[in-house]
Each structure stands twice: as structure tokens, then as C-alpha cells.
Amino acid sequence: MKSLLFVAATLAVGGQAREPENLAALVDEMAVLERILGAALESETPMSGPPFPDGAPGALLDYVDRHMQPWFQTRVGTIESEYLARQGILVSLHLRRRPTVQDLPDALFTMMAQTGETGLPIPFASLPPDDLAALKILADELDETREKHRKLYQDWHVELRDASESDEFDPDDSGPIEREISALNVRERELQADIDAEIQRLRSLLVQPVKESSGDDVDGALIQAVCDYAMLKSLPDDEHLTLRVGQDTPPRDGWRAGRQWTYYVLAKPDVVECRHGSIDAEALRERAYVYSRERP
Questions:
Q1: Pairing status of strand 258-267 against strand 240-249
Q2: How far apart are CA 139 and CA 145, in angstroms?
Q3: Angle value at C-alpha 72, between 69 and 77, nearest 5 degrees
Q4: Mean pLDDT calculated for residue range 42-50
């Protein structure tokens, strides 16, 4: 008997299955919301101009094009929306983490010193030419040392080949060339250590004039955009608009970067009041449920 009742209940539920009303209109509204919220966040953290001025060395431009795209990507990674029947509209936004001066590749500093280009890629400040002088001297000496090392290594192989054909060949006799190669190896390591220290010094001089948007900035831009543009005509009055905002977090203690998700749950009547000017964006934010969770 219990089995029959279960089957009957299952059939009854299946028979009542239906689509939400106004689903097509809701889908259209969600597409509009995606555009509105994306534009609001991009205007909050506008992209900067070209990375280098006209006339910058071609090798430097090629390096930036290959290795520094994260500095010039748009703020918003993805925006997706969906409708949850009897709950409301859920809009998920993934925001990219803005790179900082600590993320700049060491090779960029060396290339700038050797090419004479002193302006770092936007949005980073420039370095005075005098600050790069010491790095240029070290980098040039390292290049010269490596070139000398390469030529000596070739000469050493020729010497070994010729000596091996002699009856007096002693494989344990290092010879003057090998000793000089060993000295060059030591000097290369010293120069590289000095270059690393100099790059760290230069990095500490940099100030990032375009600040990373804080959580409050993101809150304000999103809520204001909802107040100004979210119509929600097709959304039932007892449902909600939920904004799910994911932001990448820096790696901690060697672990991979995580992602923090913040949820802003807005009741439709509150959104309508804000849209009509009865309350402002700050009041709408105060009425919202806001909570966060971090996930890998």
C-alpha cells in the first residue's frame, strides 16, 4: 500500500510540472541586467590607455604583448544570469583580480633598463632614468659575462679535443680555461643576485596610482546600477534579485589563489522603491541581505 501511495504521489507531482509565467520576458530582463551591471563595474575601474608611448622599443612591446595581458584585461571576467522559480533572478559576476606592482615580471625591469624606456605599463608610474642606471650596468655586465662564458666553453671543448689526441693527455688536469670558466660561473651567480636585489629596490619605489576597487566600491557601483536601471517588470513581487559577486583572492602560504563570493539579496519591492526614488542606493543596500563565503 505504501508503494502505491508513493507512485501516486510521484505521478501527481509530474502531472503538475509547469514552466514559470513570463519566462521569456524574464530572460530578456536578465540579458539587460547583465549588460547594465557589467558596464557599471567597468566604469568603476576604467581601463587605462596603451601600455607604452609611441616609439617604445619593439622588443619591449613584444614582451608586454606576450606576458602582460592581465594588466590590460577588462575588470569583469564573466556575467551569467538565471531565473529560479519562486525565488527570483540570480546574477553571477566574476571579477578579475587586478595585478599589482609585485606581479610585474623581473625581466620587464631588465628590458627597460637596457632599452632606455623608463615608463612602466599603465596603470603603473614611471621610474626616473637615474633609478634604472645601476640595473643597466649590472645587466650589461651579466650579458658580457655570459657571452665570454659561451666563447670560453667553445674554446675549452676544442682544447680538450686536441689534448685527447696527445699521448700526454691528463683528464684530471683542469687547465687554465676550465678554471676561468669556473670563475665566470661564480661571477654570474653574484651578478644575478645583485640584479635580483636591485629589481626589488626598484619595485619598492613604485606606486600604483590606480587603486584596486574595494568591496565598498563594488557594492556601491552594483547597487547604484540596480537603482538606476533594473526594471524587473516581469519578476513576481514576492521574489528577489540576487547578485553573486566572485573576486579572486591572492595565494596564501603557497596555496593556489581562492575566490570569495559575496551575495547581495534584494527584495523586488525595495528595488522598485529605489528605482522610483523613494529610497536611495544606500538605503537599498542597508535593506539587502549581504553575506560572503570563500571557496577554492
A1: antiparallel
A2: 10
A3: 90
A4: 57
Its pTM stands at: 0.63
In which order are the strands placed within the sheet that holds 240-249? 76-84, 88-95, 240-249, 258-267, 289-295
Residue 194 has pLDDT above 80, yes or no: yes
Concatenating the DSSP letter of every residue in the chain gives -HHHHHHHHHHHHHHT--PPTTHHHHHHHHHHHHHHHHHHHHHHS---S-SS-TT--HHHHHHHHHH-GGGGS-SEEEEEEEEETTTEEEEEEEEPPPP-GGGS-HHHHHHHHHHT--PPSTTSPP--HHHHHHHHHHHHHHHHHHHHHHHHHHHHHHHHHHHHTSTT--TT--HHHHHHHHHHHHHHHHHHHHHHHHHHHHHHH---SSPPPPHHHHHHHHHHHHHHH---TTS-TT-EEEEEEEEEE---TTPPPEEEEEEEEEEHHHHHHHHHTSS-HHHHHHHSEEEEEEE-
Cis status, amide bond into 236, omega within 30 of 0: no
CA 243, 217, 207: angle at the middle one, nearest 5? Answer: 135
Q: What are the tens digits of pLDDT across the range 85-103? A: 999 999 999 888 777 778 8
Q: Which residues contact 59 (CB under 8 A, 6 or more apart)?
A: 111, 115
User: Among residues 229, 204, 241, 230, which one has the least CA distance to residue 87?
Assistant: 241
What is the grid cell recorded at 218? 563594488
